[in-house]
Amino acid sequence: MKKFIPLLFLLVLGFSFQSFSQDEIPAYIKEKITYPVLDFHPFIGVMPVEEPALPYNPELDYKVVLDLYGAIKDSTAIHPSILEVARTYNLGVANGVPQEKLHLAAVVHGGLVNAILSDIEYEKKFSIKNPNLLAIEELEKVGVQFYVCGQSMAFLQIGKEKLTPLVHPAISAKYSFVTLGQIGYVYLNVSE
């Protein structure tokens, strides 16, 4: 039961993040939150948990494919789904997973394709440079691979030349998940 309570706390905390503004962290969190690797945004930090269940297993490679979709609600901020990619990375490292055993892939589809536009194209659409590119660049530096659904690109009439070159077009989001699943990646939806 003692081990369940911290996990329940993290789950509740995860849902609570959505009730704060994107840059506002309550004082009780600020004094405890850590940033094991990535620190470009306040809400990608990790709360420490004493003696967590399911600690790092050196026999495993941790492969996760994250599902990123939705709409841009605030064009001036990094999209919450992209922040969750960074937080997932930090959580892995906080759990003891060495960076060389942590493999994350993110698949962008639907209206969220607008979040991966180049600065020029984003500025045409939203009158501001793309705030998501900083996050994508930092994630790419630690080895996170970004893919985009070619079907979403086609339906939204967004050509490859309009996207950041850090994101790789695939035939579809569906087959990105299928292919990555076949090579050992575990599906994680961070967009709900």
TrEMBL record:
Pfam family, one: DsrE
The keyword Signal is assigned to this record: yes
Top-rank taxon: Bacteria
Entry keywords, A to Z: Signal
Signal peptide: 1-21
Protein's name in the database: Intracellular sulfur oxidation protein, DsrE/DsrF family
